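RETRY 2/3 - previous attempt timed out on the joint model. Re-submitting the same 574-residue input unchanged.
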Amino acid sequence: MFWNEKTETLKKRDLETIQLKRLKKTIAQVQNVDFYRKKCKDAGIIPGSIKTLEDIRRIPFTRKQDLRDGYPFGFFAVPLSKVIRIHTTSGTTGKPTVVGYTKKDLDTWAELIARNLTMVGLQEGDIFQNMVNYGMFTGGLGFHYGAEKIGLTVIPSATGNTKRQIEMIQDFGVTAIHCTPSYAMHLAEVAEEMATDLPTLKTGLFGAEPWSDSMRRELEKKLGVTAYDSYGISELFGPGVAFECQERNGLHIWHDCYLVEIIDPATGEVVGDGERGELVVTPLAKEAMPLLRYRTGDITMKLEDECLCGRSQKIGRITGRSDDMLVIRGINVFPSQIEHVLLRIPEVGNQFMVYVDRINHLDEMTIDVEINRSFFSGELQDLARIQKKVVKELRDALEIRTTVRLVEPGTLPRFEGKAKRVIDRRGES
Amino acid sequence: MTETDRYVIKQISIFSENRPGRLAAIAKALTEENINILAFSIAEADGFGVVRALVDKPKKAYEKLTGIGFNVAFTDVIAVKMRDSPGGLYEIAKMLANVQINIEYSYAYTGKEGGVLILRVDDAEQAVRLITSLGATLLESRVFQ
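RETRY 2/3 succeeded.
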């Protein structure tokens, strides 16, 4: 099902024509922002000098810190009186980032959410419970207006009081929910404790934090839903930037609204399709807060295969943050890659710690991993075999040799908030 | 009770990281449960090891150690009596060689019963049959447990 079939299935050439037109418009729009006026001037760029989409590579990146430095309204390209809504991102360090929306921005955003919801099969008649924060977080209102736009019956339940959430799902016959994957897991557990089930549910939309395929299987089993991954960040409106279709094999990013580059976070060079790197986005349809080459910090790749659903090129599900990237003997390694390898090996747990040292001028990576209780046979040789297996699987996936230490179950640190699994000691003498 | 059951002893095998204090933690736990260690050895590999012990109350030891987070497994071993004088080990080892019993690992102690050789073999049932048929003495598991 399509919300806007013509736009969603544009041929590459037609899409590029629209992208170039909108890029030129965006370059003109950012001239209202001091930060960009200076950047463009330094790079010798005027709206008329952009001839192809590749010309964008002459413009320097915009980073999260730049937006923080502009607090509160330094990145607004329209008068404040034309900004009809403000959201902020949670500032874990320092000031939050402020994002603003014109009336047209809110329409565009709702249109993208409408595409996503229709893409996963939701339509008039579905009852949609939106279980995310409705305040400054973009997930609440963002989904809300998109869901109303396509005529869903929307329950703005927001967060908290899980028992009441479960009662509403049952009493109102809710067919689709939106929340974080971790809250979905909590919801499933509370339903289990209440010895009740949620027979009307069929669709689960989960986002705002990375989640694995094994978590998908578990959520689908526990909640009886088909689970879809939702990607978005406030700087690019919020949720709705990219979404899984019914194939559930990668995220469709809306190329008419977002110009996508994937770069090597260490060098800033653009990488090829199928190569992992940091997602850099130039929004093409933002009025209040246009951005150029915004570094999202999220790690993904452009997928090479066309999608059966007929929509345009997908990106891979987000597998980590570029801030977490390590360069080991010249090779980029993401902790999330290690996690994915460990998830495939039942003999060890999923917790791990990474230590990086420089020994005789060479980078050495050591990974501590817990032995899985039920796989301990009592025999030393079986442990040695497991250790070798982990080393081999890591080498196959990361293309580097690592040292693996087996540690006792339950001894590695567990993280409640943001995990700090990497200790880089190369700077120490 | 079969011959195998009579002679097969439950050794506890404990996974341990190779760092100071792990053995003390194991020994302390066994002390608290008033469990006596009759024989024991440590096998070490790259960064970790397995502590192997024969104790008088293996089930209780398993529960206690597991309860405080250790990864513990039971391993079947047998105990052969040895003469406690020069040539004692040779007699037993020669016998095992003659009947082609392969030893995975082994450790020994001398106590009230004389010398005792603890053996971990591929096939405990076959080893019990061969060793008893050759006239050597296996210690019954109830001697320990």
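Strands of chain B lie at 9-17, 37-44, 48-55, 71-82, 103-111, 114-121. Closing ticket.
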